[in-house]
Structure formats: C-alpha cells, structure tokens
Amino acid sequence: MRRARTVLHVLMVLTIWPMVAHAQEDPPKKVLSIELAFDHIDVTSGFSGAQIEVFGHRRDKFTDVAIVVKGPEKNIIVWKKAQILGAWINRYGIRYRRVPLYYGYAHTGGEVFENQETMGEIGLGIDGLMKGKADLKNPATKTDAYQAALVNSMRAKKVYPEEPQQLNFINDYFFRTRFLLPASAPTGTYKIQSYLFKDGKLIESDTDTMKVEQVGLNAFVHESAQDHAVLYGIVSILLALASGWFVGILRVRP
Amino acid sequence: MQIYLPIAEMSVPIELIVILGTFVGFVSGVFGVGGGFLTTPLLIFMGIPAPVAVGTQSCQLVASGISGVMGYWRRGNVDFLIGTVMLVGGMLGSVVGIFFFSLFRYMGQIDLMISLLYIILLGSIGLMMLFEGFFTMMKKKTVRSEFNRLKSPPLIARLPYKMRFARSKLYISALVPGGIGFFSGFLVSTMGVGGGFLLVPAMIYILGMPTLLVAGTSLYQIIFTSAFAALMHASISQTVDVILAFWLIAGGVIGVQLGVLVSRRVTGARARVILALLVLGVCLQLGIQLFIEPANLFEVVIK
C-alpha cells in the first residue's frame, strides 16, 4: 500500500514537473525561425552539384525576411594586366579580404532592401557583400572594374548569383527557398544567416552552419594528403610505378 | 561522366582526362620525351589549378616513364650507366630549382616567369631541331654519321672526371651527362616538365649518343627525376591529386605503348621534325597568350 502511494507520487511529479519547468523558463519568442533540410552535403566521387534548402517561419506577417548563404572565406587578389615590352602581364593588384567562395541570397523584396546602407551593413546583395572588402592603401582608388572582374569570375563559376533567389511563401508565415551548389562549389563550412526587418529596422538575426564535405575515398585521399604528406607522396609514386610496370608487362610483345 | 578530384577540389569529365593521358602517353612513347610540356598547359586549360597540374603530372610521368622504358629495355636500348650519372645531376638540379621556384613565388609573377621560360626554351629548341631535322632529311644521310661529325667540341673534351660509357661507345667527362641531368632537374622543379624535349637533343648534340639509345635512356632518367619532384610537391605544397594521376596514367599507359610501337617505324630525322613542330606549336600558343591583348584584362587569384 505504502509502496503504491510512493509510485503515485513519483508519477505525479513526473507529470507536473515539465509543465512547471516550461512555465518558468519560457524563452522570449523569436519571430523568425529557419530550418535546413540537410545540415551537411556529402561530396562523393560522382558529385555533380547539390542544393541547400531552407525552410522558415515568421510569426509576424508584416515583416521583411532575408536569407544569406556564405561559403568558406578566402583572400582574393584581382590583377589587372598591362603591356610591358609587348607582353601582357599582371601589373596592378587589389587584394580583397575574406571573400566567401560561395554566395547566395534571398529576400522578401520590401523597401528596406533598396537601402544601400542597410544592405552594406549586413552584407546583403553583391554590392553589400563586397563593401569594405578591398584592402586599399589609398581609399580613393577606383575599384569598380576590379570588383566587377571578381564578381564576373565568380558568376562564371556559378558560385555567385545573377539575381536574388525567390522566397516562396506557402502562406503568410511559412516560406522556403533553395540555393544551388554547382559541382565546383568549395568544400568547408557554410553559414546560413537569417535577418528579420520590421518597419525598415533590423530586429532579429541568426546564423546556422552546415558542412559541405568530401566523403569516402575522396575524404580519405584529401585527409591523407594533408596529414601524412610525405607518406602520401611515397604511396602515390609507388602506385604510379606499380601501374606503369603492370601495363609494361601486359604489353603485347613485338 | 563527371568525376570529382579531391585535391583539385573540382569536377571534370573523366573521358577528357583519359584522352589527354593517352595523347600525351603516345607522344611520350614515340619521341622518348616525358610530355610534361603538353600535360601542364592542357590541364591548366581545362581549369585545373596550375600547382595541382604540375604536381600531379610529375607523378603521372613516373608511370608513363616506366612503361615506356620497359619497351626500350627489352630491346636493349637503354644506357643505364649514363642515365644514372644524369639522374644524380637531376636530383641536385631539383633541389636548386625548388629554391628558385619558392623565390619567384615569393616575389610574385611566377606565371609570367614560367611562360617566358617555356617560350624561350621551346622556341629555341624547336627551331634548332626543325632545321637540323630538315637538313638531315634533305641530305638523306644516315643519322649515325651526323652525330660523329658533331661529337666532342674541344671544351667538352678537356673536362676532367672522364668515364667510359661502353653501351653508348663514349669516353667523356661525367660532368657532361651530370650537367645535362642537373639542368633537367632544374626544369622539372621550376616549370613542371620532365625535360625530355631538352634531354633528347642535348644527348644527341652535346653527348653524341646514338639516337637508338637516347629515348630509352632519357625515359629512364625522367622516372627518377619526376618521382623526386612528385615527392617534393606532395610534401611541400600538397598538390599531387592521386585520383587525377590515376586516370591520366590509365590513358597514358595505353598511349605510351602505342607510341613505342610507332617509334620503330619513324626515322630519327623525321621524328625530330615532328617533335619540333609539336614543340613550336605549344610555344606559339604560349606566345599568343602573352603578347596578344587578352579579352579579359583581369585575373582573379584565390589565395
């Protein structure tokens, strides 16, 4: 009898506890929440591209939403050629710091996205992204042509978009969008940033990450080359020797 | 079919890589040159990063070299002694070359330096071989008599450390083949070429070796020099893509065997004229790229 009552107590506590705990720790409600369809993309031997799919929900339909995808960042030098003694060589260079090797963005297309300053602050849109990236000794240097060359080169590789992606709203609150990764997309950590604007002001932002990684044989080769470089070199040469020798033996005798 | 390359970090059509390997292997088998002067520009043209192209093809040269040398070896057309003296020089040359390569890279403009080196070397060698080849063909002399006439200029005859190379019927200072090897090793590490296009004429004109032995012996030397360079590239800059190398080798081993078969039907002078035209073609292409105003004046380099 005593035992049965103890069990009952425990059951009651277990049932009520979560409710109490929930009431106590209720976090401030976020207006915007997003979710990725996949949190990693595997780059296999037959990798021919993939897509990053983002689902989202906003609690307030009178807001503007922007989603930005940034691949791993590297420094980039843009060279302009000039003729010296008849030969066209790289003469003038401008360095751009921490440029993402993949970039994609989508937004609801409100008035706020026409404000260049806002776009520059959060790095939205190609111009916003490139703002302040150039490493200049003289800030008055004209860089338009250099930046255009960089962006065109990225667009040719399909890693920068021509235009923003659409945010597809299922109703006033739920939306989804997808960003295409070409086969040449760089591997590494991708940042998916979300921004929420209300009355032209940024009120919420959040960052998710996802990995684009080589898997299987590719990953093994990549890691071996990085972590055991000398051994990798020796094994490569031995493989080359062995395959060359093998075919030499198979050769039809004259 | 697309294949992803783990070190180059990009997708390429597998057929294109195999065809490229076969073509270069064929050239390698016919002329006894490594074919690096073709592989490097063609891989870069396909969009593969230049360091990966250079590193990988040095590994590929090992395979096409060994299957190529076996064909000559069976027929006894390799002078191992003179080849070994050359490769000792080649190792030293590689070390010096890697030092210079790093220096140019530090100063920037390594691309320009490589282009100019290619144009100067390929241009002068191509022209020299072309004229000599035509000259020989016109006179309808045997190749052998041509070399006896050119053999041993006075300066070379006076050098010390003379060695007897019985297979090549030469009595010559070890510094001469060693020096040729040194230069070849220097080219491997600074330009990413096996150096066969330079070795073959150097062995014919400077050493005065019989043509029959030249292709096999230079392939033998190239195996070791390129293996050494591949090891350097793999351990210093991690630019050897073993997957890319595998498919290049697969194509190359087929091509090189076909080339060895064909090489027996091509006379020395005619082979040299064809090789000269090939070398001049690559030289011209590089010259056009350097001296004609490019459509895109900008170059984007990811560090």
Helix-strand string of chain B:
EEHHHHHHHEEHHHHHE
Quickly give the CATH architecture of the largest domain in chain A: Sandwich
Across the major sheet of chain B, the strand order is 1-2
Overall geometry of chain B comes to globular
* CA-based shape of chain A: flat
What is the CATH topology descriptor of the largest domain in chain A?
Answer: Immunoglobulin-like
Sketch the major β-sheet of chain B: 2 strands, antiparallel
State the end-to-end distance of chain A.
Answer: 99 Å
User: Percent range for helical residues of chain A?
Assistant: 25-40%
Please count the helical segments of chain B.
12
Question: What is the total tally of β strands of chain A?
Answer: 12
Total DSSP helices of chain A = 6
N-to-C terminal Cα separation of chain B, in Å?
Answer: 30 Å
The pair of chains with the biggest contact is: A-B, 60 and 61 residues
- Given as residue ranges, the uncertain stretches of chain A (5+ residues, pLDDT < 50) are none
Assign the structural class of chain A, choosing from mainly alpha, mainly beta, alpha/beta, alpha+beta, or little secondary structure: alpha+beta
Total domains of chain A: 2
Strand content of chain B: 5-15%
- Spans of chain B with pLDDT under 50 lasting ≥5 residues? 142-149
Average pLDDT level of chain B: 79
SSE blueprint and pairings:
The complex is a heterodimer of chains A (254) and B (303).
Chain A (H helix, E strand, L loop, with lengths): L1 H23 L7 E5 L3 E4 L6 E9 L5 E7 L2 E12 L2 E14 L2 E5 L8 H7 L2 H6 L3 E2 L8 H13 L11 E2 L4 E8 L6 E11 L2 E14 L1 H12 L1 H22 L4
Parallel strand pairs in A: 2-12
Antiparallel strand pairs in A: 1-3, 3-10, 4-7, 4-11, 5-6, 6-8, 9-10, 11-12
Chain B lengths: L1 E4 L4 E4 H18 L4 H10 L4 H25 L5 H28 L2 H30 L3 H8 L3 H4 L4 E4 L4 E4 L1 H17 L4 H12 L3 H27 L4 H22 L4 H24 L6 E5 L1
Antiparallel strand pairs in B: 1-2, 3-4
Helix pairs in contact in B: 1-2, 1-11, 2-3, 3-10, 3-11, 4-8, 4-10, 5-12, 8-9, 8-10, 9-10
